[in-house]
Amino acid sequence: MKRQKIVTFGELMLRFSKPGHLRLTQGGMFNSKYGGSEANVAVSLAMQGEQVTYITRLPPSSVGQAGAESLAQFGVDVSCIVYGGKRIGTYYFEPAAGMRAAKVVYDRDGSAYYDLCPGMIPWRDILKDADIFHVSGITSAISQQAADATFEALDMAEELGITISFDINYRKNLWHYGADAREMLKQMLSRCDMMFGDAIEFDWISQHPQPPFTAVDANFKMQIAEYREWFDELQGQYPRCRQWLMGMRNIVSSQHHTLTALLFTDGQLFESPVVDIPNAIDPMGVGDAFMGGFLHAIRIFPHDPQRQLDYSLAAASLKSTIPGDFNLSTEEEILHVMQHRYTTQTLCEEDF
Question: Does this model's pTM top 0.85?
């Protein structure tokens, strides 16, 4: 029987924000939600009906247990999470408003994941029946020991012949321990079979200037020939990677975003239309929704890259309308948006 399980690995965090659009320096109350890139992908996949196991290290406390339960309630398998350490990593998010940009403040040093070391996770047992292993650049950004644990997992995935999915997820404010971020992420990229990133991250890791994406509505025309040359260059540098998914977002205003995406596979470049989202609610986790959508789309549309891409973009578009880090959209909802060409019309219950 073909292996179907997807395993994602990364740090689960607790996100704090002030109510409404208060700044972090205002008021005395915080709202909290759990999240984190690889956890977001896991929830997205579970919501779409996939069998997905999430791996991390959490403190053996009620806070850590609540974090695991925040994923389990959506169908994610959390039985292989390891416990240890004293605290969970956190981040503080201040949403954008008008001309004020969003702000993120991390507090991850000394977390249970920060102190994760090789040998703590039984990778062979966890990955032996997995089809896909998903990881991101954040897993290597937190600490040297966490980076070593990430490469331990990649070694085992390669040994077992598992497809490796990689999200660049470059966060410059996380790389404090002395590693060369670009070189380490290039090492991870060289070992992956499919890769996602936004165009800014592609630009950063390849040092190839991005053609401008300045869409203010759905009528924007992409410079496809330039992107094609860029993907050809990347494929030559990283021949193992078979599927390259690039997302683009232009923040016209705090609540008006435009999205599009490109997929390069088997020497062909596929383009999706620009989606105009005039009422974006929460920008966090949109890239993770892209990746979660794609990992599901390659299964439901195994021989149709255009539909794989269109489905992924529809998933990301829906996430823009959902508060929190998780994309709580089902396959049926994503397909509905995809089939209606990403319109912003209100959907009725009888449509499903």
Answer: yes
